[in-house]
Amino acid sequence: MKPNIFFTADHHFGHENIIKFSKRPFESLEEMNEELIKRWNEKIGENDIVYHLGDVSLGKLDVTKDILERLNGKIHLIKGNHEYSALRVSDRFEWIKDYHELSIEDEEATHGKQKIILFHYAMRTWNASHHGVWQLYGHSHGTLSDDEMALSIDVGVDCHNFYPISYEEVKELMKTKKWTPPFAPRN
């Protein structure tokens, strides 16, 4: 059986002020950390693949290590701007990169593969964006307006009820976009 693929960003484990900054519905840091772990593990199995698009934790090293050990899945990290502790437990990640161009086999995609650009920050244009390549990002905690004309989505937890989202969920969201290829023949 093929593993499921998930995307997420901006957990900010161990960061008490994010509750106030992002208006998260948690009474305490402990409640936030525990609920984020619970929601992660509700969706992600042990062998599932997770692409975390940055800002895993602002907690101390021991707290970050403990949380990462409790999370299911094979985690790939795209570095955000708050990775001090996560980088010190780098062995928990399959790999750590600044940017990644992912290709997923999908019969419905052009040429049977969907290409996805993974980066912590939203971009206005990206490699092959004019050919239907998607861009997934975090960082903005849902503060950027969604551009229905662009094949990009904020996968941060603040935008998805504090859950990671699956490839299939991303695909459904992309189907709602009004993007058209800029170089397609016009009638």
UniProtKB/TrEMBL annotation:
The chain positions of domain Calcineurin-like phosphoesterase read 4-120
One Pfam match, by short name? Answer: Metallophos
Give the protein's recorded name.
Metallophosphoesterase
Give the InterPro entries listed for this entry: Calcineurin-like_PHP (IPR004843), Metallo-depent_PP-like (IPR029052)
**Gene3D superfamilies, per this entry?**
3.60.21.10
